[in-house]
């Protein structure tokens, strides 16, 4: 049983980290605002996976499920607001390029 | 039943959004102000039937048991004061009732902004009350989402840019905090502060705990806008509408970043040498870089935003001293900063509304035409720079003495030097904006109206009062902090 938990934990951590790295790559190197939102979604997904893993390993699945459902709800709200902001930026700049967001500096 | 501080504003929001639009439009501001005033008097008079009574059936709907100590009371006070000022500035700076309604345009912008302000205040009350990491996360997100929408309330081009940067950085911070929560759940199996603290003291040097603490602290640094994670902060503050800048700079980032950091360090992580060194380093860097960057700004609100980073540096430095005196200084400075930085942003709102510009190079001699705004801004900047006997002097003095006592003499000297830099950039601001010869084109400038002079005068009075009343406040405000450690 111990070895099983260990293997599950390692596999889960590796997958979570891979997902998070992909998300960070997407956040850092994409120039499209929508892609940045997708990167944020991916990042949250990797964290959700980590919470599910923690709940499964410690045997507190009920707590983890509550957390994940709440997290999904909040995430949808954040992404909806973010999409609204992207639409607003697109209306002002006529473009989804993140390089257009350079007005404020100093 | 402190949980009522979350439930009542939420119910008020529900009632305000019942379909009697015209009536509610007029009521919204007063409902918000009354909520803030009630909170203010509940803290000042602290009736035990409110703070200590067991929750009613309504409170039991919440799964979390709210925690309450001295630190929470200070935060409630600051939230109420800054919230009321933001609502009054909102009444002053957002005009919509008289404008003709364009098809498709939002005809009740002020109503929406007031609703979101109340939501942000609710979220911050929740952050202060939270007793486990998960409700902390939920309330952090409520506050953050309300502030994203508030920043873009005026739909300007810069506002979308600032809000997008804030949103991305804040979402990354949230992901870091959540990952830390997952890792802590892995070691503790539970999320309440007390249980995590127990589990952490049992396995303090495991790699998982270290990674969790690192992610948690970095996430909170991003939320608080500390160097090197400050990129979003000046953009978000300067692009936001005036009322929202008051709220964001005065209390939102301080609650979600600094207060949460203090709370987590006190109740969960506990002080250790590594953490203290990290806090000292980041605090000193924020203090100096914020002050130096503020020197070179010509946008009024942007300069205040960098000044805010610098002052947050002081708070983190006080926390990093790791002693009870440092903690007292940190909390006291948090409160003072909420007052004087709100006052400066209120003044910035008045100046921007009356002159139509935020460029300090185009202003000059405004104090002649706007005497109250000029006078209150002098009080605020002297307090920020730490000139006795104003409030900011005492909190900075406590932080510096705490640093000296705990053996961090170099950091104490840096804090004094940064105070000189603060004086330098504020003097430059005063000279360019308020003093000197009246700039061309401002001959017909008028003083702002009463909606903005009330919060300005009240905040200035609090700053002076706290500074002069320090012998009395020492007993009632600073000594109870001993109970926290």
Can you count the beta strands of chain A? 0
Number of helices of chain A: 3
Classify the oligomer: heterodimer
Shape-level CATH architecture of chain A? Orthogonal Bundle
What kind of sheet is the major sheet of chain B? none
- What value does the average pLDDT of chain A take? 88
Instruction: Summarize the main sheet of chain A.
Output: none
Number of strands of chain B: 0
List the helices and strands and how they pair.
The complex is a heterodimer of chains A (106) and B (485).
Chain A: H1 2-29, H2 33-58, H3 61-93
Chain B: H1 4-16, H2 21-45, H3 48-51, H4 57-60, H5 70-93, H6 109-129, H7 133-151, H8 157-188, H9 193-202, H10 207-224, H11 232-239, H12 242-269, H13 273-295, H14 300-320, H15 324-355, H16 366-369, H17 371-385, H18 391-405, H19 409-433, H20 450-468, H21 470-478
Helix pairs in contact in B: 1-2, 1-6, 2-5, 2-6, 5-6, 5-12, 5-15, 5-20, 6-7, 6-12, 7-8, 7-12, 8-9, 8-10, 8-11, 9-12, 10-12, 11-12, 11-14, 12-14, 12-15, 13-14, 13-19, 14-15, 14-18, 14-19, 15-17, 15-18, 15-20, 17-19, 17-20, 18-19, 18-20
Structure notes:
The complex is a heterodimer of chains A (106) and B (485). Chain A has helices at residues 2-29, 33-58, 61-93. Chain A is mainly alpha-helical. In chain A, helix 1 runs antiparallel to helix 2. In chain A, 82% of the residues lie in helices and 0% in strands. The mean pLDDT of chain A is 88. Chain A has a single domain (2-100), classed as Helix Hairpins (Orthogonal Bundle). Chain B has 485 residues and is mostly helical. Chain B has a domain at 272-485. Helix content of chain B is 76%, strand content 0%. Chain B has helices at 4-16, 21-45, 48-51, 57-60, 70-93, 109-129, 133-151, 157-188, 193-202, 207-224, 232-239, 242-269, 273-295, 300-320, 324-355, 366-369, 371-385, 391-405, 409-433, 450-468, 470-478. Chain B is globular, with a radius of gyration of 22 Å. At the A-B interface, helix 2 and helix 3 of A face helix 7, helix 8 and helix 11 of B.
């Amino acid at each position: 049983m111990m070895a099983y938990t260990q293997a599950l934990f390692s596999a889960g951590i590796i997958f979570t980290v891979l997902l998070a790295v992909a998300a960070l790559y997407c956040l850092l190197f994409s120039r499209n605002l929508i892609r940045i939102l997708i990167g944020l979604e991916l990042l949250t997904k990797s964290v959700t996976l980590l919470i599910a893993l923690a709940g499964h390993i410690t045997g507190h699945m009920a707590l983890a499920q509550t957390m994940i459902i709440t997290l999904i709800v909040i995430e949808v709200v954040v992404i909806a607001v973010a999409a609204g902001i992207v639409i607003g930026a697109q209306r002002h700049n006529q473009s989804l390029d993140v390089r257009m967001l350079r007005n404020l500096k100093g | 039943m402190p949980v009522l501080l979350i439930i009542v504003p939420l119910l008020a929001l529900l009632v305000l959004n019942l379909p009697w639009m015209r009536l509610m439009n007029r009521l919204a501001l007063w409902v918000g102000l009354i909520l803030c005033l009630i909170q203010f008097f509940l803290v000042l008079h602290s009736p035990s039937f409110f703070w200590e009574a067991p929750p009613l059936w309504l409170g039991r709907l919440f799964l979390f048991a709210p925690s309450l100590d001295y630190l929470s009371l200070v935060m409630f006070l600051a939230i109420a004061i800054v919230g009321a000022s933001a609502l009054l500035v909102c009444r002053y700076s957002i005009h919509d009732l008289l404008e003709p309604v364009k098809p498709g345009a939002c005809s009740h912008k002020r109503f929406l902004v007031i609703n979101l302000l109340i939501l942000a205040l609710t979220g911050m009350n929740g952050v202060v009350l939270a007793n486990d990491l998960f409700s902390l996360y939920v309330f952090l997100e409520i506050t953050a989402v309300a502030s994203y929408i508030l920043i873009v309330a005026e739909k300007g081009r810069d506002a979308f840019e600032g809000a997008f940067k804030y949103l991305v950085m804040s979402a990354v911070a949230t992901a870091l905090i959540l990952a830390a929560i997952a890792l802590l759940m892995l070691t503790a199996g539970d999320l309440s502060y007390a249980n995590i603290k127990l589990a952490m003291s049992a396995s303090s040097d495991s790699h998982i705990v270290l990674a969790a603490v690192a992610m948690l602290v970095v996430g909170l640094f991003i939320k608080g806008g500390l160097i090197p994670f400050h990129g979003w902060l000046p953009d978000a503050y300067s692009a936001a509408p005036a009322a929202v800048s008051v709220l964001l700079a005065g209390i939102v980032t301080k609650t979600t970043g600094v207060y949460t950091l203090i709370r987590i360090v006190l109740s969960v992580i506990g002080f250790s040498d590594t953490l203290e060194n990290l806090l000292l380093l980041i605090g000193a860097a924020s203090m100096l870089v914020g002050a130096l960057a503020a020197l070179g700004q010509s946008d009024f609100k942007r300069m205040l935003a960098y000044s805010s980073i610098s002052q947050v540096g002081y708070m983190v430095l006080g926390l990093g001293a790791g002693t009870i005196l440092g903690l007292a200084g940190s909390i006291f400075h948090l409160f003072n900063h909420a007052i004087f930085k709100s006052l400066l942003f209120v003044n910035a709102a008045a100046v921007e509304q009356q002159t139509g510009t935020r460029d300090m190079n185009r202003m000059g001699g405004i104090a002649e035409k706007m005497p109250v705004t000029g006078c209150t801004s002098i009080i605020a900047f002297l307090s920020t720079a730490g000139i006795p006997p104003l409030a900011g002097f005492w909190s900075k003095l406590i932080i510096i003495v705490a640093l000296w006592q705990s053996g961090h003499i170099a950091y104490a000297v840096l804090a004094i030097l940064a105070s000189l830099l603060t004086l330098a950039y504020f003097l430059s601001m005063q000279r360019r904006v308020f003093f000197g010869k009246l700039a061309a084109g401002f001959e017909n400038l008028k003083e702002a109206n009463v909606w903005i002079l009330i919060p300005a005068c009240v905040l200035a009075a609090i700053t002076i009062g706290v500074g002069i009343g320090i012998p009395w406040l020492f007993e009632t405000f600073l000594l109870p902090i001993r109970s926290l450690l």
